[in-house]
Every structure is written in structure tokens, then in C-alpha cells.
Amino acid sequence: MNTIDNKVNLKVERKKEPIKITASTYSLTKEFEVEPKNSFMYWSNIVCNYGIGMLVDKKNPKRYSYPQRIYINSTDTISRYYGYGQTNNKGELHMHISLPHINSFNLNPENEGIKTNTGFWGLTLGLDYYHSKNQFLNVGISGVSDFFVPFPAAVDISGEYELMSSRYASISNNHRLGRFSIGYGLSYAKNTWDFRYYDRFDPPPPTKEPIKRSHNAFGLVFPTYFQVGEQFNVGVIYRPTFFRPTMTNKFVYEHLISIDFALKIRLKK
Questions:
Q1: Are both 257 and 138 inside the same structural domain?
Q2: Residue 73: predicted pLDDT
Q3: What is the pLDDT of residue 158?
Q4: How far apart, in whole angstroms, are the C-alpha atoms of residue 226 and residue 178?
Q5: CATH number of the structural domain spanning residue 168
Q6: pLDDT at 102
Q7: By the number of CB atoms within 10 A of the CB, which of 145, 171, 245, 260 ranks highest?
Q8: Is residue 192 included in any domain, yes or no?
Q9: One domain for residues 98 and 169
Q10: pLDDT for the residue 202
């Protein structure tokens, strides 16, 4: 079969044996095997019917599946394939949707001293634009917090409670190195520290009045990601800030470190 836009669709029979594929160019022919794996539906028998379905499907070839996409590097002299694209085309545009779910704060609100904590929840929306095969610009807006519950749940808070959050915009240039991408850029943030008191369940009296401190800050951003699947990425974002234009003490180091789970959806080839 000939490729169209360097792509080809294959329909294969599911079986226990690996699929043998031969790929040819004008100057090179490569042969390789794609190993089968147990499908998601096969493993779902553990949850759905306590594993009984696994016994029924033990000898059924439909229990096997193959990668939805494989990639071949035509310049690679070794007969192998990849589970991810080796390069991107110049001009590609991707939507970036991610959950910076674990967030570690180091803030210095005015007249309060250094505040540190690690918590959960956040959301990022952005775009990746490839200006070369292995480099892209990312523009995004984010909102993160240090809420203490990592999953959706109804909680009752009693007594004194501190909450840190940050909203920020960033732009970064990123280099793609195989499954990794490493970036550097600028950020503008609004950091907030909020001291609250809840009088549920007869707590001890507050040690001070509730207060909320917010300030804007300029700094840098350093995103690093590892590509797990076709679209899914896991990353660490380090966002230090140094300059707070409206504060009395303008030059102060603060940072946010986030563990991020990102989905990148191609919008334009």
C-alpha cells in the first residue's frame, strides 16, 4: 500500500502472534514486528465480572489489540517503530488542556512573612505552535490552588484555614527531544494568600482577623514534559517570580511548582 501524506491505514486480524510489517522507500526497506497486547476490554473483566470473562476469553483472539498508531522514521537504519511522532511539521497548532493537580507554593504576602504549602487542583488552557520541527511556542493561562483534598468531595472546614492560589499567563519556547519537551519563558501572575476562619463545630476562637493578600508578580516559567501516549503528557512546571511592581518590597523571590497532566490535541497540521 502507498502512503498518503506519509500515512497509511491498515486493517489487521487480531491474533496472538505479532504482525509483520514491511516498509519501503526508494532507498531503504525495513521489516519489523508489532507485538499484540491484551486489550482494555479484556482487562476490564476484572472489574466488571470479577475476572470470569478473562477465563471465557482466554483463547479468543479478540482479547488482543495493537497500538492505534505507530510511527516509522524513514531515516532510521534500524528496523523499529515508535509509539509517538519523532518530529512535528512546521506550522502545526495544538490545543493544550491540562490539570496542574499537585501544586507547591512559596509565597511572601506583604507583612505576613513566607508562606509555604502543597495542595491540589488547577486548570490550564493554551496553544502550542510549532515554528520548526522540534521547537514550539506555548501560550497559556492557568489557575491553581493548594486545596487539601485531591479528589472531588464535600468537606467541612472548622477553625482557622489558609488558602493559597495563583492565576497566571505564560509564554515559553520549548524544545522537543524524543518523548521529552523542555521549555523556558516569561510569566505574569496574581498570587493570593487568604486567611479564613470557619465557626463550624465550635472551634477555638481565631488568633487574628481574617485577611486576604493579593499581589501581581513578574517572573519566568520552565515547563518540562514527558509524552506518555499519542496526546497525553506528564510534566513538571517551575514558575519563579522576582518582581512585584505594586508592593513596597518589590524584589522578592517566590515560586510555584506544579505536577501537570496535559492533553495536547492537534488542531492544524
A1: yes
A2: 67
A3: 87
A4: 9
A5: 2.40.160.20
A6: 97
A7: 260
A8: yes
A9: yes
A10: 86
Half-sphere exposure of 50 (CA within 13 A, CB side): 0
Residue 222 lies in domain:
93-268
Residues 127 and 214 in one domain: yes
Low-confidence ranges of the chain (pLDDT < 50): none
135, 174 Cβ separation under 8 angstroms: yes
pLDDT at 75: 64
- Residue 34: the pLDDT is 81
- pLDDT attached to residue 3: 64
What CA–CA distance (Å, rounded) separates 249 from 129?
A: 37
Tell me which residue of 1, 6, 4 sits closest to 72, measured CA to CA. 6
Joined grid coordinates for residue 225: 514534559
Q: What is the 3-state secondary structure (H, E, C) of 190-203?
A: EEEEEEEEECCCCC
**Structural domains of the chain, count:** 2
pLDDT tens-digit readout, 56-69: 777 887 788 877 77
Do 245 and 175 fall into the same domain?
Answer: yes
